[in-house]
Amino acid sequence: MGRAPCCDKASVKRGPWSPEEDAKLKAYIEEQGTGGNWIALPHKIGLKRCGKSCRLRWLNYLRPNIKHGGFSEDEDELICRLYASIGSRWSIIAAQLPGRTDNDIKNYWNTRLKKKLLGKRPQPSRRLIQNSEINTESNKPAASLGSTSSQAISTSALERMQLLMQLQGLNNPFSYLDINPLAWQNPYTLQNKTNYPMQGFEHEILNSNSTTSIEESLDSANLIGLQSPMLASDGVSADNSSSSFSSSVAGFQSTFCELLYGNNSCNNTQEGNFPEPDNLKEINQDDSISWWPNGLDEYASPFTCDNGVNYQPDMMLLQDYGLSGYGL
DNA sequence: AACCAGTACAACCGCATCCTA
DNA sequence: ATAGGATGCGGTTGTACTGGT
Fold it and tell me: Segment Disordered: which positions (predicted)?
């Protein structure tokens, strides 16, 4: 039992608006206003359109001062930062960009800006198995990956993480692994709280040419609470033996977990270990991550990084964390 | 010229929330 | 307090357009 439709779909016109329809709607609203009732409006004008369709047409195309296309670099950056901060809250993002509509920004993001900023994604064959494919008994569509799991990693969250790293000046957060794979240490084998998935990340930040710190970047993205415990007040080092350091790491870990999973369930696990999301257990094992520049196999044995540090293969493999191939 | 694949964008759909009687 | 209608929102779809072969 769904709710009753807002209009009779058999009797309303659908599809692209004609210039005549546009003119009717525009003239009426400019003269009379919407009257506070979109449902009744098409009947008053004599349009065979659904009220929702009229509202959308007015808001997105007919109302004054609407800008289309031609997004500036400043707008790109603002959209990027806002998306990193709040995700796909298009109406809020649109409110910060005068003349732009949520629909316009959403389309722009999905078709162009995302590719421009985050790069091209791999083919669907490399993606994680969707819920609808895992649970073939219930034919329920998967509204989003892991929609039935409280530990779902959302596409938005990972894109936001990636954007944050982009904002920090790293062209590709995953190429960062070429430099320091400890950045993504296996969360399931963490033995103490001074190890956490972002370990090493800040080392890279500190050694990058970026003029802004990760703190500034996170702050600008309004990720309150995602404060790096690796940075002391001098911005260079931290006393990782102190209890305050441990608690700040735990807090950081929790917030990071929340960003990834949409909740802070990591708090409920022992020693700050990260739980494995149910939806990430099903991965097409035959489809290795060959799209990765060098693959990850080379990280399965101990190796020495450019900075001279020896790393053990305790690092998490990306597919464990659902990051392989952006696996979402 | 015809076909095809990829892209961009307008519009639709369904759900969540708000509002009001 | 609550039920039902209106509205807002984000995800998705349909289609026109474009460029390559």
Answer: 119-148
